[in-house]
Design goal:
Shape: elongated
Number of helices: 8
Largest sheet: 4 strands, antiparallel
Structural class: alpha+beta
Number of strands: 6
Order of helices and strands: EEEEHEEHHHHHHH
Helix content: 40-55%
């Protein structure tokens, strides 16, 4: 069996090779559309067409270039586009990668130890008081409301049906990932966590950390810390 896989400059697979999870430029190939969701779902790149399926928000006057659908500004030999928004040279990609690997993870915790406030918040939740009202009338309970919102996003991605406790700013994170996590990863909480953590690690190594991934994996780690 061959242990390699060749590609054209634009990412079309050249011949039969080793079947790896990671394909062109270290990204996951969506077999259904034969494309790559670059930037963790920000834009779909189609190697067969040698272009993106949607326009670049950074075109035509910013880093995206004049052609809002082009891949790597028409020069995939000398550039790559891991974020799906702007081509970068190998040197720039290495700098981004080194910076991502050297940057310490932001500290984030769900551990709230004030029992009196916790009991007060629990009573308000039982009374079904909306999260926004709780924060407005009892600002000292805001950390509890925000923790519940973030945990609700994780629960929703794992299959829970409840969305009532999710704050608007956290709903954006849920909307980003709800259709992005593949069906094969939705079996258990552990499989969803593993897919998100692996995606974060892959994009950090490639030098294109994604804010939504960094955020939600921080929640996963904080949840794990809270349960210890």
């Amino acid at each position: 069996m061959k242990r390699w896989q060749s590609y054209t400059p634009y990412g079309a697979i050249g011949g039969d090779g080793y079947c790896s999870v990671l394909k062109f430029n270290g990204d996951h190939l969506d077999d259904l559309v034969s494309g790559y969701h670059l930037g963790v779902g920000k834009r779909l790149y189609l190697p067969a067409l040698m272009r993106f399926a949607s326009p670049d928000a950074l075109s035509p006057f910013l880093k995206g270039g004049i052609n809002s659908y082009s891949y790597c500004a028409g020069d995939p030999v000398n550039y790559s586009d891991p974020t799906g928004q702007a081509p970068v040279s190998p040197k720039q990609a290495r700098k981004l990668s080194q910076g991502a690997l050297a940057e310490p993870q932001q500290e984030f915790t769900f551990k709230l130890t004030d029992r009196e406030l916790s009991a007060k918040y629990s009573k308000m939740r039982v009374a079904k008081i909306p999260p926004s009202e709780i924060m407005q009338t009892n600002p000292e309970l805001t950390p509890f409301v925000k923790r519940t919102s973030k945990l609700s996003v994780l629960a929703r991605l794992r299959g829970s049906m409840s969305e009532s406790n999710i704050l608007p700013e956290d709903r954006k994170v849920y909307e980003h990932f709800k259709d992005l996590i593949p069906a094969r990863a939705r079996g258990t909480a552990d499989s969803v966590n593993r897919w998100l953590l692996d995606a974060e690690a892959n994009h950090s190594v490639l030098g294109n950390p994604v804010p939504e991934l960094t955020m939600i994996t921080a929640w996963i780690r904080a949840e794990d810390e809270m349960s210890r």
